[in-house]
What does this fold into?
Amino acid sequence: MKLMKKKPLALIVSASLLTGGMSISAMAQTSDQTSTDSHEQMERIVVTASPLDRTAIESTQPIYVLSGDYLRQVQAATLGETLRGLPGVQSTYYSPTSSSPVIRGLDGPRVRILQNGLDVGDVSRGGPDHAVSTESSTAEQIEVLRGPATLLYGSGASGGIVNVVDNRIPRQRVDGVEGQVSAGVASAANERSMSAGLRQGTGNFVLSLDGFKRQADDYRVPEFITPDGDRSTLIENSFTDDIGGTIGASFVGDRGFFGASYGRIERDYGIPGHSHDHGDDDHGHDHGHDDHDDHDDDGGIFANMVQDRYQILGQLNNPLNGLERINLNFGYTELQHEEIEDGFVESGFGVDQTELRITARHQEIAGWRGAFGVQLKREDYVSYGVEAFTPDTRTDLAGVFWLTERTIGDITYELGARAEYVELDTDGLASLEYAPVSASAGVNYRLSDELNMTANLAYSERAPQSGELFSNGAHFATRTFDIGGIYEIHEEHEHDDHGHDHGDEYHLAFADYALGKEKSANLDLGMHYDGVRWHFDANLFYNRIDDFIYARNTGILSSQLDSDMGLGGHDDHGHDHDHSHDDSGFLVYQYTQADAELYGYEVSAHYLLNDEWRFGAFSDYTRAKLRSGGNIPRIPAQRTGLDVTYSQQSWDAKLSYTQYWAQNDVAENEAPTDSFGILSAYLNFYPQTAGQQDIAFYLKAENLTNRLGYVHNSFIRDYAPMPGMNIGAGVRISF
It folds into this structure.
């Protein structure tokens, strides 16, 4: 794999941004969302992740949809930071440069990240320092399904899904030209960003072009003391430099559409807290690469991520008797992620992924309407270099699913089932097979025009991922030494010839059996009230998981682990590594299984005092523990938030405060985290313009009091606290 440069893509994106800007004055558009009450508007938006065309309020599963001006207001450089303000959703927070969603305390292999219904095809679930390869600035909407979504999207969605929906493959005809352009700046990291999208229709054909560019320096924080005893107000090596663009086209006819797109994302971003502790010796690198632009001068390790993504979407209405429509969704993704220090590739990861989903929605059968389908997926994963502690793995998945519903009076009943087959074939190690099954049943009871109640019971099984099974080596980004579930650790006492005990030593060996499937039973109860002045949502959940897979802090130092079975540094890609990186002080984490339970709530409410004033509040909480005693590691803290909004015809202002409570329910060898609060203010201005252009200006001031805050579930919590005061401004123009 070769490191790919940015110049060709930069020209493409610059052209798309310029095209969008030059077309503004001549085009027209219609606004899709007002600023005064975005919550109710979002609930009426159809959730594309469901083949039954439900809205969020019609589903028995809790769903949140971000779109329009609200999405632009909370938009951040990473998907996790964009979503972390939603009830029940927080982020892994490996600094703002790499932040993935955490849903009800679950993340990584249990939260499926999708783009237009297909897996994003990156390595973000292999480590918190790996960024998600999606972009919210060019998204039409982002759908978040809290709780198991395994029926449609497989065992990797046992905790929920996040579906980033864009219009790169247009699904509807466009008369003439439409699009949008936006730009923004923010002070905490000197961030500058710009994005644009353009769609042009000619008869049945629609062409789509979009692009984005973002740059940010190291971000500033309130003064704190690192674990090394240093005082700092800047998180070194936390910059980001991103660019991306997509071109797509569709044929839209009377009975459906068919289209394709090609997109490319390139990211350079720093990895704070990532240390190899080299000492004073030389490394003897001979990587065969030339320079890697100016980031080498920073002295830290940075990631270069390049992704090419091809996608085909199609829909045919009334194809056969008994079928209302058939949807085709096919994607192929190539991703290269390399971590670079001093001009040399220290570690590299690659993913080639092919995925096909075919879904058919059938007409009513005995009063039941539903959809069934098939999903096929192949993923080839390779790694090389210092952190190649997981072997090259091919994962094949095949699944079939069925989802149906029926409304009788004021009650809608939902049923669903899925069966899948997963095979993991590794380079030089085991080949493992799993057959997870999932099922769900739910009801949505409409008590009145304002009030409805929901209940959903889901059973899901999850096959372990390759990292959970086969890891064996130092992960410098998390400062851990990771051991997979196919191994077992034996403790031995070392004695000399005189019988003196020289301490414990631990040996690694293959286990008699690998990790088994996770088996989860999840109950979700919800209430939704939408009155004239009051809007209220509440969800209670209980998730009982047998054989829960988690990384347990063994308390053993890697220097005590005697193993010649390690994978670190192996390289079949033509790289010559002669490293002397020191991982002797890393704690050993081993993936293991134990029965667990997670329960908690999400509550949000809004009160409309009059046409000008609105008050809001929310709270969420997840309790996660092992049924045999003890707590699950790195569970986000409970939060409570309050906000007040004042609105006029052409502007609105909002003041919000979020309290992160102390997290004292910690796992073995895990330290608690203190509470802190974040005060923020927002001002949006919607000027009246000639014609039908829609222009919005915004100002934001986040963490106004410059409060120091640590994210409990972050692997680098003590090295990278949350940003300090951040002043931002931006503009969005639609036409």
In short: Residues 1-43, 276-293, 566-580 have pLDDT under 50 and may be disordered. The chain has one domain: 7-734. The radius of gyration is 25 Å. The chain has six helices and 37 strands.
